[in-house]
Prior knowledge:
Chain A is α/β, with parallel strands linked by helices and 219 residues long. Helices cover 24% and strands 32% of the residues of chain A.
Amino acid sequence: METLEQIKARLEIALPITRLDILPNECPAGERSLVVNAADGFAVAKFLRDDAQLKLDYCSNVTGIDWPQATIKTKIKRKVSVEGVEKEIEETIETLRSGHLEVVYHLYSMELKHGPVVLRLRTGNRTDHTRLPSLTPLWRGAEFQEREIFDLYGVIFDGHPDLRRILMWDGFAGYPMRRDYVAPDDFEYEPTPHDKVLEQAKKHYPAEVKAEAKTEVKP
Amino acid sequence: MLGEQIIKGMAITAKNFFGSYVSKERLTTVQYPEERLPQQGNTRQFPMLVFDGDPEKGLRCVACTICEKECPPQCIYIVKSKDKKPDYKGQPQLYPAIFDIDISVCMSCSICVEVCPFESIKMNTEFELSTDDRFGALLLHKNDLAKSNEYYQKLHPDDAKESDAALAVEKAKAEAKVKAAAEAKVAAEAKAKAAAVAAPAPATPTPTTTSSATPPPAVAK
Amino acid sequence: MSATAEMPPKNFEVKPKLDASGQPMGELLEVSMGPHHPSTHGVFRMDVVLDGEEVVKLKPVFGYLHRNHEKIGENISYLSTMPYTDRLDYFCSMTNNWAYALTIDRLAGLAVPERAEYIRVIMAELTRLQNHTCLIGFFVQDMGALGTPMMYAFREREKILDLFESVSGARMMCNYMRFGGVRVDVNDAWLAQAKKVTNEYGKFLDEFEGFLSQNEILLARTQGVGVIPKALAVNASITGPMLRAAGVNYDLRKVDKYGIYSRFDFRVPVGEHGDLYDRYMVRVLEMRESIKILQQALRDIPAGPFMDPKAKLRGFRPKPGEVYGRIEGPKGELGFYVISDGSPNPYRYRIRPPSFINLTILEDMCLGHKIADAVVILGSVDIVLGEVDR
């Protein structure tokens, strides 16, 4: 199979795309991915599926990822001349990553038996711009997986034939897989509480927890 | 003939059915609980703490809480003691004042056994522990969990042999270290005595002659 | 049913058939084959709309066993997730463990020694044997065989589970694979017992096929039922025996050649019609191929270490990066997509569940068939709810 750079070149010739990047992967055994704008996502995916050299007819995995707003610190080395002597100093640059949700598609080819090509689509933010094009009309196998991402992350897929909750019950409020999801307080008595459960236990059974902490066991 | 294959199939099941009256091999049902199958060698159910000799003084656990941290469902609860007691090597170690395992949460993954550096928590094979008290009876305390080394050797003879061998190696290393330290001390004392006899200390030691061949016998008792 | 951009809207209106004068013949009946059901392979619900006995609409509903395993994976360390992967597809815990161990081996760059690779292949093929055996038992029971073939299947399965218990300590929740190898080594007594079980398995399969494969009732109920065309199977991301029964030759053991599968001589059975009988036969033939692989592996297993010496048990922090690792599980392609950010816990831990995705075209397969066929079609998809819901 051709490299990602060749695929990117052919895509840019064939389609009017605003943004198409190759995301590096620090792990050497993993694959690099193509990041596309949400508006061009459907056209790029259709090209990848129908192209004669790639024929990526099998969408293996659709994953949702939550990237909350965070400051990323990267250390870089810079050459600086101090009093005429060139020195290399280490600097920490802080970049603000705005929060967004991401959907990753792993595409393989059953006919030509090659792959994968990893395609990534990103939403605008995590609150109101959470719409992405659905790739279910191209690969039927993405149907249930996109429903699951809608259910657990809150990404709305335009063009999905049946977008509703799949694993949680209808009428459930909230998106459980997001990193800032707070589970409801359904505390049940637990004899060996740790960490977060211990905090809850203190709220519900304060007398008992205090009594246990007080027991001095003599050798 | 329509139905021929069905009749052939029924002949096979009939052979098994009538054969079960005659041959033991075809009778696969075991009438539990009157009959029990012997358990496989390495079977694991819930953890237990091993002690050598005395359940209190010989308990191998030193309350390092590594198993508590690594346990995936977090079912172990340890409270360290305030004082120390000597372990099998003779060194004073902490011990667990409280060691509770909630077996309604434990999933028998034996990760606690894998990460324990002191060969003190192992897997037991008792599984007929059902009760109707959901919280109290399924919480095992230190005295329920403590089982003797002889029991462990009967249960998993190969593992117990490896475990005992590892502990013996550690004990030998510790004893060797103690012996080496004692010998080093004796040698130092002898050297110090020899130095004191050979060169009596001068009345007014000058600051520049601080370089002495032998180290000052400050540690000599 | 083609699967291009002209998919019908899902919530389409269904109407009963009309008689000669254009009047509707009766009403439609909506049945909830609810989560408590002996034939649904777990807590799975199908809302079917029936016109007489014929299925006109089918909606699968699941999520009753959802434990949010993916979020648990984000909160605990890499090693601690291994026992949770046993509980995904609880019949095939060894292959689940292998898929996860394979992914993390690639992420951390660990080299698995040869003996461990052979052991992994032996465990995976034994798992495939016992999974297909017990699945055929369930499949035939869904047809109404009232348990006899299932009991035969379980009797053989117990022999394999005894092997698993003697090496890893537990029959089903084995927790056996580790990053860089396996947890404990197999000794010669175990290998001898495994050889014995493997060599006797062929005779058991002959007996099992003797009363199933040519049985007129089974043939009448499975041939021509639940057909999937090849193009739809590929487009709907179907994998495993269901895909191969539809006529597509795609087996990850031959395509990806993960582990040491390239050393073994085995064939991949591919069906022709894509109906239920083909799926049954593909599974039986796969069992025979598994026996071949097992015999070769048990013969060739070398001596050596069973764990990579560089692998760490505690304090395992792989470098940042992401990997998607997949294996050919008994039910289809089981994949793990792990993103690491250098901390002891994964940043994102995703399981690609074959049973969940194979259910996408359940409605397509069942439309037009009777409700009794819907039960058997579901049986042939081979779902385990632990994997569907995670």
